Amino acid sequence: MELHNLKPAKGSTHKKKIIGRGEGSGHGGTATRGHKGAQARAGYSRKIGFEGGQMPIQRRLPKFGFKNINRVEYLGINVKELQVFAEKNQLSVIDLDVLKKYGMVSKTQLVKILGNGDISIKLDVTANAFSKSAIEKIEKAGGKVTTI
Questions:
Q1: Where is the composition biased (Gly residues) (predicted)?
Q2: DSSP structure class, residue 31
Q3: What is the pTM assigned to this prediction?
């Protein structure tokens, strides 16, 4: 194989549709625009959401709901996941830097520790927020909870 032999795989390339160049293009006459009407004229552009005169969907459906701009989004991590994570990596202290280092959270995420599951090892946990049950379970196991 040499440079002058190279060519794309069969069927991987397509010819561009040549429009408005007369009969020889195979799309002559009306250039695939049909006969007369707004769509056949130069400068025509259909409005976004136009459905041929039928009432558009954005006007048929009612408005509802809102987006709370003050919402704070947390990534939830359960205490059972913390237990597995700490045992796997032989950790006794878990904070945001450790979670970021091991790839459990990204650098901008806020973390909330949730109380699903059981924890049996002593852990010092630092996070942005904790549920009541998570605090109870961590402290019951002899650990310490610190909220940032």
A1: 21-31
A2: T
A3: 0.59
